[in-house]
Fold this protein.
Amino acid sequence: MTTRVAIVGGTGKLGGVIREVIDGEEGYEVVAVLGSRSDLAELAGADLVVDASTPAVSIDVVRAAIERGINVLVGTSGWSNERIALVRPLVEASGTGAVFIPNFSLGSVIGSALAAAAAPFFPSIEIIEAHRETKVDSPSGTAVRTAELIAAARADVGPVESPHVDQRARGQRVASVPIHSLRRPGVVARQETVLSGAGESLTLVHDTVDPATAYAPGIRIALAAARETLGVVIGLDSFIDIGVRTRPEMPEAPVADGDVSGQVAGATSA
């Protein structure tokens, strides 16, 4: 049986990588590629929607897919626990599935898992992430996901120690973890997680050098999972056995007020 796929943001960098992977996989057919001028009604007839749009419109894409009874795989950055809480009731009530993947890179996912595993042993943890200057959101979805995993892993020992966070130069705190975002030419994606304790520190670094080859294995895993998933699932680590205990079950975030809307556009990677 062939899975018919609609890609939103299919003309962007991430969307192009996803389309190339799908074209090379048996059992899938791309039936629609939506860009910035497309109408979300074009999703009708697909068996799976892949969202690689922009943070401003991704929530509209997810809602449009779920309202049509179509599972959705979200690769767009910017989905924190709080934002996912906005669509969780809709997904659960519809009997469909929504898979949110902050980063398709296996190395990145393993790096975040290792950071979470180490988190209870270090009182001070900060994240420095760098992406190309065209990335429109900060902090990155990967950094947000890493911070949330760290906070969950530290549930028994308390939040990260982060002094002087009232000063803007100290970065943006996510789940108590300060995140520092760099946007500059000449870089694809890089994340450093610095864990510090008395007399020592541990730095975990992940670099994405070639997105096409780095993301392809994770995209294949996520596509296969998204076809069958029911409910909300977050992170590629939900579908692979990394071999380390990363966290207890992530708590559901409270539903926040507010919504966003906009035009569909090409995506940047997480």
Summary: The domain at 106-208 is CATH 3.30.360.10 (Dihydrodipicolinate Reductase; domain 2).
